[in-house]
Amino acid sequence: MSADQHDAQLAAYRSSIDNIDAALVHLLAERFKITKAVGRYKKDAALAPADPGREALQLARLRALAEESGLDPAFTEKFLKFVVAEVINHHQRIAEGEQL
Amino acid sequence: MSADQHDAQLAAYRSSIDNIDAALVHLLAERFKITKAVGRYKKDAALAPADPGREALQLARLRALAEESGLDPAFTEKFLKFVVAEVINHHQRIAEGEQL
């Protein structure tokens, strides 16, 4: 395969990656909108920002979905922890009275 | 608001979060399918697993998309780095001859 064909193929792959990334950003934006609403609810109800029982259920479910879809379950676990750490940070800031 | 109403509201939020997470897992699975194909291309073309120029362009674009959609641009940068670290790990393993 020539260098030009490689460039065209690489550009096609990258165009698909860019489309998926745009979708991921918008889904994450929507997810944090909901978790911020959860943070405000938890503040009103004096609930703790983190919920280990809920996180264990989410993790088991996402690992199963990952296996079905061909995503590495270990990566999925790291991903969920990465997102939940941000959520807990938001919930703590909301609990302290910050407007998020 | 009563505890039961809180529980119903929290359950509704969590149902939406679970739906979004299923979509995120499937999009990430698709993204890694493409980046693994990129890894095989890079191996064939003897290209480096990482491409800092490409990553800088992705970052600028995703930060702009994040601002439009209300996602924290700093989180978006951490997210992209988190995903790209996994991609580079895959590319290195592919370059070493592993079947991914």
Q: Kindly give the count of domains of chain A.
A: 1
Determine the CATH superfamily of chain A: Chorismate mutase
Look at the structure and give the mean pLDDT of chain A.
92
CATH topology (level 3) name of chain A: Chorismate Mutase Domain, subunit A
In terms of quaternary structure, the protein is: homodimer
SSE arrangement of chain A, N to C: HHH
Per CATH, the class of chain A reads: Mainly Alpha
Biggest β-sheet description of chain A:
none
Number of helices of chain A: 3
Shape of chain A: elongated
CATH architecture of chain A: Up-down Bundle
Helix content of chain A: over 70%
Strand fraction of chain A? under 5%
**Which chain pair has the greatest contact?**
A-B, 48 and 48 residues
Description:
The structure is a homodimer of 100-residue chains. The first copy, chain A, is mostly helical and 100 residues long. Chain A has a single domain, classed as Chorismate Mutase Domain, subunit A (Up-down Bundle), CATH 1.20.59. Helix content of chain A is 83%, strand content 0%. The mean pLDDT of chain A is 92. The interface between A and B is large, with 48 and 48 residues.
Entry summary:
The structure is a homodimer of 100-residue chains. By secondary structure, chain A is mainly α.
What secondary-structure arrangement, pairings included, does this model have?
Two copies of one chain form a homodimer.
Chain A: H1 3-44, H2 52-69, H3 73-95
Helix pairs in contact in A: 1-3, 2-3
List keywords for this structure.
homodimer, 100 residues, mainly alpha, Chorismate Mutase Domain, subunit A, 3 helices, 83% helix, 0% strand, elongated
